[in-house]
């Protein structure tokens, strides 16, 4: 297995819980160019995976730009976010709003470069990003596209993000469609990504952390060829983070390695909360914050959704593109 990017870190935040992570990205077996990016910022409690796409190898520019933009925004607003109440008057977590704003800023940056440069025109990237709020023991998860976040708790793996793709969007509007119609839909064409539109809708959720939780952020180069049952087994059997990342990458390669492969394993270390810590306001684990909308609240009609499904302006984000 060729070398990827591998880092092991601890957040160093003054919190009853600490986060430690390792991440790697690999070109896979069928691509000639790696357009994924992985970011670990222990000082900010920020972790993300981005899966880029676009002509002339612009996908790597999009994913790297998104990672840098999100990191810069979170760093620049860290003090201001810390000075705010943990939850605003509407009950929304300040950290979640900060992370969502960072991703929207990254979307603007990707669009700006795409529109101003012929070489980078049409580039885009999916993203899944998480950030840690030490005061409330919350992990905020923001995503656009089909890069995923999983949580392993007590040996059970849960997928915390729902792919933004044609088939899921259609089912949300037309859950009674026949299996024959569903079989004709592109299964992997994404409907949201940075660089597609200014009116980007982000899915935003917050989860209460618990000691011994393990989170996995990954691109579809891992979650596509490797079934969830195998991901769960590897996350359980490989307690050492770097070894776990290597095992996950190897599993994707053994499954054919059809795409770039990126995995980030995040462990929650620490003791259970004290009585005073339990008194801090937190969100229920099944509470879903509203999706943040920049523009465009109206629902897409099914015909319009299907018309857009090939996403021709973002090569590589559509279905079944295994070309190098």
Report on the architecture of this protein:
This protein is of the alpha+beta class and 324 residues long. The two termini are 18 Å apart. 47% of the residues are buried. The protein has a single domain, classed as PPM-type phosphatase domain (Phosphatase 2c, domain 1). The protein is globular and about 45 Å long. A six-stranded antiparallel sheet has the order 1-2-11-10-7-8. A five-stranded antiparallel sheet has the order 3-4-5-6-9, covered by helices on one side. It has helices spanning 59-76, 78-83, 94-116, 166-173, 179-183, 220-223, 228-237, 241-254, 275-278, 302-308, and strands spanning 7-10, 17-26, 36-41, 46-53, 124-133, 138-144, 148-153, 156-159, 203-208, 214-218, 261-270. It contains ten helices and eleven strands.
